[in-house]
Amino acid sequence: MDTFLPAFVMGFREGLEAFLIVGIILQYLRKSKNESLRKYVYYGTIGGIVASLGIGGILYILSKAIDRMDQVAKLWESGSSFVALALVTTFIYWMIKHGRNMVSTVESSVSQNLSAFGIASVAFIMVAREGVEVAIFTFAGQYGIAALFTGIAAALVLAVLINHSLVKVNLRMLFNITLAYLILQAGFLLGYGIHEGLSALGSLNLLSSENPLFIKAFDLSETIFYHKEGLLGLPMYVLFGWYSKPEILQFIMQYLYTGSLFYIWHRQIKQEARKLNSYAQ
């Protein structure tokens, strides 16, 4: 239950973006009277999905094999979390920089690649990018496959309704909400990686239990803020990546990372607002 919402939101957000991108490409081809290239959009989309599933399958098999290695498993989980975090951070940064102008960004890419191979490549890269992000985040966060695919299915239904003009949705607000959630989950991933890494180093006797790195920032595990069962702690854990007994290093790095990404996002919004004001004047 505690990983359902993160997995659902991840699948929904990335699935919706991928499906909307495919819709934007198809609409652009129709408007530019290049409908003969539509089939290559589908080829690229299928290729992107297959590539994503392939990478997801490899990561799944790898994680299952590592899980049997006891102490090494925690060290591996920590290391893989940092690798996943690096990749996810680049995806989030791209969203912050280009997500608000997704339509123009996609149309620009399509207009510069108006050929069978070019269109298939654009569709493949954009769909695979979203799919690989889901696979990496799911692998590092140990999210449930059922919740993930439930989110993707919900995204597909909504994307179809939007593309057929059956529903109207404020996509900017929707993407902003889900992007904020992904930033919080990425911060949690960093905290998780640090915590598991310290735990693994302690288990392997590479760090003594007296090492200052194990000093806790606070301990609220006996209160309602306990992140596994607490009345407030559990929902905070699900929604914000809250941890009730973090090491000082874990606590500082997790929220410094989260705050930095929110600051970059806020600065990007202000820059875009200034540009709009200058154009208006």
Automatic annotation (TrEMBL):
<comment type="similarity">
    <text>Belongs to the oxidase-dependent Fe transporter (OFeT) (TC 9.A.10.1) family.</text>
</comment>
<dbReference type="GO" id="GO:0015093">
    <property type="term" value="F:ferrous iron transmembrane transporter activity"/>
</dbReference>
<feature type="transmembrane region" description="Helical">
    <location>
        <begin position="6"/>
        <end position="29"/>
    </location>
</feature>
<keyword id="KW-0812">Transmembrane</keyword>
<keyword id="KW-1133">Transmembrane helix</keyword>
<dbReference type="GO" id="GO:0033573">
    <property type="term" value="C:high-affinity iron permease complex"/>
</dbReference>
<feature type="transmembrane region" description="Helical">
    <location>
        <begin position="75"/>
        <end position="96"/>
    </location>
</feature>
<protein>
    <submittedName>
        <fullName>High-affinity iron transporter</fullName>
    </submittedName>
</protein>
<feature type="transmembrane region" description="Helical">
    <location>
        <begin position="248"/>
        <end position="265"/>
    </location>
</feature>
<dbReference type="Pfam" id="PF03239">
    <property type="entry name" value="FTR1"/>
</dbReference>
<dbReference type="InterPro" id="IPR004923">
    <property type="entry name" value="FTR1/Fip1/EfeU"/>
</dbReference>
<feature type="transmembrane region" description="Helical">
    <location>
        <begin position="174"/>
        <end position="194"/>
    </location>
</feature>
<feature type="transmembrane region" description="Helical">
    <location>
        <begin position="41"/>
        <end position="63"/>
    </location>
</feature>
<feature type="transmembrane region" description="Helical">
    <location>
        <begin position="134"/>
        <end position="162"/>
    </location>
</feature>
<feature type="transmembrane region" description="Helical">
    <location>
        <begin position="108"/>
        <end position="128"/>
    </location>
</feature>
<keyword id="KW-0472">Membrane</keyword>
